[in-house]
Design brief:
Largest interface: A-B, 33 and 32 residues
Strand order of the largest sheet of chain A: 2-1-3-4
Shape of chain A: elongated
Shape of chain B: elongated
Structural class of chain B: alpha/beta
Order of helices and strands of chain B: EEEHEEEHHHEHEHEEHEEEHEH
CATH architecture of the largest domain in chain B: 3-Layer(aba) Sandwich
Largest sheet of chain B: 6 strands, mixed
Helix content of chain A: 55-70%
Number of domains of chain B: 2
Structural class of chain A: alpha/beta
CATH class of the largest domain in chain B: Alpha Beta
Strand content of chain B: 25-35%
Order of helices and strands of chain A: HHEHEHEEHHEEHHHHHHHHHHH
Number of domains of chain A: 2
Largest sheet of chain A: 4 strands, mixed
Number of strands of chain B: 14
Number of helices of chain A: 17
Distance between the termini of chain A: 11 Å
Strand order of the largest sheet of chain B: 6-7-8-3-9-10
Radius of gyration of chain B: 23 Å
CATH topology of the largest domain in chain B: Rossmann fold
Number of strands of chain A: 6
Helix content of chain B: 25-40%
Oligomer: heterodimer
Number of helices of chain B: 9
């Protein structure tokens, strides 16, 4: 009775949807994720602004000229310190005094710079008050390097006015050819979309996939499925569950998506150099593919979770097996750098066509460089087919789960069951 | 104490006219089922008529649940045939069946009313009608206060009532209940028993399983007693009881108990002024009465039918001894 099948599927979907939308978990995650995201963006902006070099430092050297050059290079650098004190030539008393100042946090650290006659490279050591300061290290390195170059250029007779010109930094602008249009390309932002999908898919699978597995296990352990199966086919049950929980996922995505559009157009985002979605490096086509691959991935992993839930006997086992569920996602993340580096290599093509990897890998390929259309559609078709196969299989496992109660179903029994429903 | 339950069934307006008494609603025809070599049900046949109450009786592990599961298509028989409403079993007919499994299960987080409406909708009822009936039933079974609570907030007995209601909301012609009264307090057990009797009068067929003889004795028109998967005793309750002799006598007397030495007595238990006697097969109880009256004043002399329990022990125990 296909009418009943449809009606029951929708009834089950409705129940799953309403129960979840009303749940506290839904409200909390819907609110917390955007708050977390905005919080992270805010923190990122804060820490970016706070990225500064060493404020106060001392240079102790036996070579006064070089020490002055280094000081000049530091003052000219991207992050000029507030105060650089030069002790050249330095004495042991100077060293003791500077050490004391480091100890009392008056200076951030001191640079020991000693040249030996006949040796081109000076002996340079940066002693810092804090354990690891990568910014400080690179700051000192570039200052010493540029001082040495300046010194050598001066030694070769290059006039001071030309030295500055030679030492000027070059800014490289990057752009990307998308279709026929040359667009601004910022590698970080162009992958923002792909990483966004990974985070969203990962979170949804973890939240809703495990949720489906739980709800299946709940029905099994509470034995309510005995009542359900005496009225409804297991296909209706599984399909309804998937549709219902999927609709919850979509609702949440919709809310988040709306918030993102709102955020991207807001004043706050403008302060971070974001003006509308386009400036995030996301095109409309990419947004469409995002939806397709999110849904495909979501349904595939949810169906897998349902099968998982159907084949275990308790909630604890769901926890134990959840890593199996997310392992292809983890593998996709691990494989990302490879796919990014070689988006059209055989390996990347094959991976992007394997359904468990398709959502992330194919989407990444699309973001990096549009693959041939046949590959994109083939991957979508394979993904859809595997979702259908997974639903079918989990419905059987669920059905046989009743028979396994107290005993294991024999193969002929299972085959007879397939004919029955 | 419970008020006499004289309610209208919530769906009396939908009185089925198609059903006539004696119509067979469910039939098992030489059904067998084994699990891993162990026979759970062996060559079992039974028929359930419309407007009757059928008791599936047996000790724990006798095969009651296995039998019921085959009736509603949760498992398939290895051999034999299951028919519902005169046709071979099919999932389509399940909407006309109400099934209460032995292990109760409800959605814990769901509100009672939502749960009832959902389960009724799955059986083809419209949402509004389902809600109307659910409310009526909850009032009838005295749990109207809990209608907006989540299932997990309710006591086990209340949950059982809700599941009982969910079995009946769609007005199934055939009601199959696995141990419906287990775990209920006596007051609620009677409430549910009376409800089932009401449904029976209304023309529904009720089959329930139990290991408690007293329930079957009070409620059922027909029984099937199974032990180790086999029917050891089946038929109408009256007919079965009449098959067994009234060979128990309860006597209350004043005076000498010398009559207890009468040749018709197989065994007896004597108390002060009271004796419970088992007669020898085909013994003449009237002769015993005359003898007793000769030496003592008889205030009560009652020939008692054997209880189903005794029949059960006699049948199953006897078989086990053989």
């Amino acid at each position: 009775m296909p009418n009943n099948l449809l009606r029951n599927t929708l009834l089950i979907a409705k129940r799953e949807y309403l129960e979840r939308i009303r749940s506290r978990v839904f409200r909390i995650t819907t609110l917390l994720v955007p708050i977390g995201m905005v919080g992270m963006a805010f923190l990122g902006a804060m820490s970016g602004r706070k990225l500064e070099g060493v404020q106060n430092l001392a240079i102790l050297s036996n070579d006064a000229a070089l020490a002055q050059q280094v000081k000049a290079a530091l003052d000219d650098g991207a992050m000029p310190p507030k105060l650089v004190e030069v002790y050249a030539p330095s004495t042991d008393a100077d060293l003791a005094q500077v050490k004391e100042q480091v100890g009392s946090h008056q200076v951030g650290g001191y640079l020991m710079l000693n040249t030996t006659p006949g040796v081109a490279e000076p002996d340079a050591t940066w002693i810092s008050g804090s354990s690891i300061n990568l910014v400080g290290k690179s700051q000192m390195e570039s200052a010493v390097r540029s001082a040495l170059i300046r010194e050598q250029l001066a030694a070769k007779g290059v006039p001071e006015s030309q030295v500055s010109g030679l030492m000027r930094e070059v800014k490289l602008e990057t752009k990307q050819l998308k279709g026929s249009a040359v667009v601004a390309s910022d590698s970080e932002r162009s992958f923002l979309g792909a990483y966004g999908l990974i985070i969203v898919l990962y979170a949804s699978v973890l939240i809703y996939g495990i949720n489906i597995a739980r709800s299946v296990v709940e029905e099994k352990t509470s034995r309510i499925f005995e009542v359900l199966l005496s009225t409804v086919s297991s296909d209706s049950l599984m399909l309804g569950k998937l549709l219902g929980v999927g609709a919850v996922g979509l609702t949440q995505m919709g809310i988040w998506g709306a918030l993102l559009v709102f955020y991207a157009g807001s004043q706050f985002a403008a302060t971070q150099g974001i003006h509308g979605l386009g400036s995030l490096g996301i095109t409309k086509a990419e947004l469409g593919f995002f939806a397709i691959f999110f849904l495909g991935g979501f349904y595939l992993y949810s169906a897998l979770a349902a099968a998982l839930g159907s084949s275990v006997s308790g909630e604890q086992e769901v926890q134990q097996f959840s890593f199996i569920l997310i392992s292809p996602l983890v593998a996709s993340v691990v494989l990302l750098p490879y796919v990014l580096g070689n988006p059209n290599s055989t390996g990347a093509v094959v991976l992007s066509l394997l359904p468990p990897f398709t959502p992330i890998i194919m989407y990444m390929r699309i973001c990096a460089q549009m693959p041939p259309w046949w590959q994109v559609w083939l991957s979508v078709v394979l993904l859809a087919a595997s979702v259908a196969a997974m639903v079918w299989l989990s419905a059987r496992i669920y059905r046989i789960g009743v028979l396994m109660y107290g005993k294991r179903a024999t193969l002929p029994e299972m085959i007879r069951w397939l004919r029955y429903s | 104490m419970l008020a006499v339950i004289s309610f209208q069934l919530p769906f009396a307006d939908t009185l089925r006219s198609t059903l006539t008494r004696m119509e067979i609603l469910a039939e098992l025809d030489h059904v067998s089922k084994s699990y891993e070599e162990k026979a759970a049900v062996h060559d079992l046949s039974l028929k359930i008529e419309a407007g009757s109450m059928f008791g599936l009786l047996g000790p724990n592990g006798a095969g009651k649940t296995s039998t019921i599961r085959m009736m509603i298509g949760i498992t398939l028989p290895d051999a034999g045939k299951v028919s519902l409403f005169g046709k071979p079993f099919s999932n389509e007919t399940l909407r006309r069946v109400g099934y209460l499994p032995e292990e109760r299960g409800l959605y814990k987080k769901m509100k009672v009313i939502d749960q009832l409406v959902f389960l009724a909708e799955l059986r083809g009822l419209g949402a509004l009608e389902a809600k109307r009936r659910a409310k009526l039933w909850c009032e009838k079974l005295q749990i109207a206060d809990s209608i907006d609570k989540r299932t997990e907030e309710l006591s086990k007995g209340m949950q059982q009532k809700i599941q009982f209601i969910s079995t009946l909301l769609h007005d199934p012609e055939l009601i199959i209940m696995d141990e419906p009264f287990s775990g209920l307090d006596p007051v609620n057990a009677v409430l549910l028993q009376d409800t089932l009797l009401e449904l029976k009068k209304h023309g529904n067929a009720v089959l329930f399983s139990t290991h408690r003889m007293d329930q079957v004795e009070k409620l059922c028109d027909s029984i099937c007693l199974i032990d180790k998967g086999k029917a050891v005793l089946a038929g109408g309750m009256r007919e079965i009881k009449s098959r067994y002799e009234r060979n128990h006598v309860i006597v209350q007397f004043e005076g000498s108990d010398a009559f207890l030495k009468h040749a018709a007595i197989a065994e007896y238990k004597a108390y002060a002024g009271h004796a419970e006697i088992k007669l020898k097969p085909h013994a003449d109880a009237q002769d015993l009465l005359r003898t007793a009256a000769a030496t003592a004043t008889i205030t009560k002399f009652e020939l008692v039918e054997p209880s189903l329990e005794e029949i059960f022990i006699e049948t199953v125990g006897g078989r086990a001894d053989a």
